[in-house]
Amino acid sequence: MPAAAPKRQPDVTRQRLLECAFDEIYRCGFRAASLDAILRDSGVTKGALYHHFDNKTALGYAVVDEIVRPWIEESWRPLIGTDDIVGTALALSRDLLRERGDKVLAYGCPLNNLINEMAPVDEGFRTRLESILDDWRAGLAEALRLAQKRGQLRRGFDANAAADFVIACIEGGFGLAKLSQSPQVVQSVMRGLGDYLEQLRA
Asked: Which residues bind DNA (predicted)?
């Protein structure tokens, strides 16, 4: 198989802007995010920024679509079709907490932060964020229903309601951890969620 072509420089520049913008928005919120800080951290010129994005809002939309969405999807896509949905979910939770725990403790969940800040005031943000959450809910419910059909999970529960409950636990746990700045809080919530998932086993 031929080697993948290297990214063109404009693609590299755009990705660098998106990653630095995500970091700035995650730390400060969208409205307080500084374009000057994004340019400084990325090493990109203002002209290059406006070559790729018409304005700050367009940059924010792209961050949601291309950084926040994959960030969230990493937490549920591996569950679809797995041979052990509970075991996979628990292992995935441990891995993600190990990778992201410090940031979640400091800043919370980037999706939830933007929902709270921008969904009430900007329709473009609201529809994008709603789409991510809807896909998360639908994907998790699909994974649970498939596990029910395969005999991994008992059939006497509503997969849609269970998916909503799991997401509410995750987002609420991250919010509590951000408020308390205590890793024990998010660990406690994740243990409780793990106990709930274990109870769904067939």
From this structure: 34-53
